Amino acid sequence: MGDDFAERVLAWYRRHGRQGLPWQVRDPYVRWLSEVMLQQTTVTAARPYFERFLAAFPTVQALARASQDEVLAQWAGLGYYARARNLHAAAQLIVARHGGGFPRRVEDWVALPGIGPSTAAAIVAFAFDVQAPILDANVRRVLSRYHGIKGADAGASHALWAHARAHTPARDVSAYTQAIMDLGALVCRKAPRCAACPIAAGCAFDGKDPPAARRARPERAVFWAVLHDPGRGVLLARRPASGIWGGLWSLPEAPVLNDLPAVLEALGLTGRLGPPSAPIHHAFTHFRLTITPVPVVAAAPGPGVAENRDVVWYKGEGPAPGVPAPVRRLLNRLLEAP
Ligand code: SF4
Asked: Which end of the chain is more exposed for a tag (fewer CB within 10 A), N or C?
């Protein structure tokens, strides 16, 4: 069964699969970087980031040597920043543990931060043609439909891994891995295109996916203090290392408007809050964030906040700090305004 399945998927891939992508090379560093970027990002969105990131850090040694700020600055806008922090930490471990060489075993990759079993398998399959099954979200959907596996419990997961193992061929592993990923992304999509599917004969899909656990995303609110000094720029504060946007630069914030003066005072600033601006909405996987920017009119003779490793003034000149997308949009608006 496994051979015929793989043959059909491979034959389809040679005619219809995604080829010529910049990361489709036999280089473990490139494959690792692209797999991490593609975890929660589409190919189209990831591509320009991938090219810029690789130009900034062309080798694992360069990535290991960089500061976290430099890494986050290149990642800024891609979201899910834990991926960048883990990539950086893993680069340092690869240099320390493996002398900068890349392991060929799935278990060595899984021992690095931010790399699960499916990502690890994809890296060794792509880079070294090691026979290792993958089970990312796309492949999981293909195999659950094909084998008629309902549910998302541990038993279903166990069965899916067993099928993934049985289907993964001993030869052409790299091509097969890309092929099964592409089949899930292009044909066996949420709304499947079964008429174009190479494994339709034998597929057990009855038109009903297991009901997805739909949860309304909770709402959170936050207030940003916008201190824009014409001479120095916009005041940015570094976020805590963990939590959303960990380690990135953002505006000083408080969960309620009345707490903002105390936050500013802790930075050595006294001033008066102006009327709040129109809110900015940002969706995370697990919640929605409503951000209300609040202009701050600093007490004369001017803002007295000194820069340190957690506070900077940004004028839009020099290397851009790592900031999340909503901060970037707000900065563009503030700094481009006449
Ligand atoms: S036949 Fe349809 S449901 Fe079955 S694997 Fe192919 S695209 Fe998916």
From this structure: C
Instruction: Tell me the three state secondary structure of residue 146.
Output: helix
Class of domain 2-196: mainly alpha
* Atom 2 of ligand 1, residue of closest alpha carbon: 194
Ligand 1 pocket: which of 181, 183, 203 to mutate (most atoms <8 Å of CB)? 203
CATH code 3.90.79.10 region(s) in the chain: 219-336
Residue nearest to atom 8 of ligand 1 (CA): 188
159 contacts 133 by C-beta, under 8 angstroms: no
Q: Tens of pLDDT along 153-164?
A: 788 889 999 999
Q: What is the pLDDT of residues 15-70, one digit of tens each?
A: 999 999 999 999 999 999 999 999 888 899 999 999 999 999 999 999 999 998 99
Q: Residue 183: which of 203, 166, 159 has the closest Cα?
A: 203
The half-sphere exposure of 212 on its side-chain side, counting CA atoms within 13 A, is 5
**CATH fold for domain 219-336:** Nucleoside Triphosphate Pyrophosphohydrolase (3.90.79)
Rounded to the nearest whole angstrom, what is the distance from the C-alpha of residue 138 to the centroid of ligand 1? 12
Phi-psi map region of 224: left, alpha, beta (phi>0 left; psi -120 to 50 alpha): beta
Cβ contact 144:151 at 8 Å: no
Distance 8 CA to ligand 1 centre (A): 13
Question: Which residues are known catalytic residues?
Answer: 35
Pocket test for ligand 1, best of 139, 142, 193, 208 (most atoms within 8 A of CB): 142
What 3-state DSSP class applies to 149?
coil
Cα-to-centroid distance, 200 and ligand 1 (Å): 6
Residue 18, token pair as written in the block: 């995604």
Going by the DSSP 8-state scheme, the letter that residue 287 receives in this structure is -
**CA atoms within 13 Å, Cβ hemisphere of 26:** 9
> Where in the chain are all domains bearing CATH 1.10.340.30?
2-196
